[in-house]
Amino acid sequence: MEVMEDLSPDERHRYDRHLILPEFGEEGQRRLRAGRVLIVGAGGLGSPAALYLAAAGVGTIGLVDFDAVDITNLQRQILYDTADVGTPKLAAASARLRSLNPHVEIVPHDQPFSVSNAAQLVAAYDVIVDGTDNFATRYLVNDACVMAGKPNAYGSVFRFEGQASVFAMPGGSCYRCLHPEPPPVGLIPSCAEGGVLGVLPGVIGTIQATEAIKLLTGIGETLAGRLLLYDALRMRVRQIALPRDPACPVCGDAPTIRTLVAYDAHCGPGLAARANAGDEMTVEELRDWRASGKPHVLVDVREPSEHAEDRIDGSVLIPLGKALTNPGKLPKDQPIVVHCKMGGRSAVAVATLRLRGYDAHNLSGGILAWRSRIEPRP
What we know:
Structural class: alpha/beta
Shape: elongated
Number of helices: 15
Strand content: 15-25%
Number of domains: 2
Number of strands: 13
Mean pLDDT: 90
């Protein structure tokens, strides 16, 4: 990475608190200005990362996203405000970051991060910040970084817990050293289903920005080879060693994954993949069953806290873990309708129940669809 010319007077004033750090100085600031960071996902993690990297003076920040701002984003995605609801995220994010620091070039990539563009996008930047919220893209980011030799400042959040590390460093570990294969679809709830404490992405996203700054400037010690675990509920932080796995399929001694793969079709080779369209039931069909008195059992596979907050009348709570291992005394002589919040966890449960001989059906869209189209909450 080429170090650029001296800082301007305005830059010296703006970055004064950096320049007086002995470990940082003008050399570090020039390296930031010459640096290029790609943030994949302008959501909960990408928001604080983008804000702090722009404020710090990273010369070029690329943003990959293709979503619009939703009001439910505002609880944690601090790049946006209420007036941005309905606006494309990249338009709102770019305007905010440019107003924060006009010295920074913001490059919007209004497209999904996919097999068709991953290699090209990663190759154009020095550091990749993984702000994704799904396994399919997370594995693709990891594999693209390993294959391109670009460091991946990784972060993830769920409920009250977060993780951070730096993957794809020379001789270092990657995400597959931690999780070799994606989990089946729906087995692990998304943040939309399981929830996330609003400030948690701020903590983890800021750690990702910190790692990116250290990678660009060459100062300090990164999280490469270590996994940081953060528990917001108990305010505990710990680290575990994460060495490179010689048998890793992408960064190991004899890698078996040499080309990028679209994991949208692979994050579910297990139970959920066995479900088919015949297993699905619309909320309108369930309404008609209930109105006609058709015998059935409605099973809720969410967690007890979710069930306590809102439930469909007459549903039986059997959390997903128990539904997979011990469905209890569910009858096999009448249909079983399974629901969760949006339909992911229930799809896994339905596949399991069908393998065990139950006439099980997945309620498409879950309780959110029920509340939206059948029985709005008062």
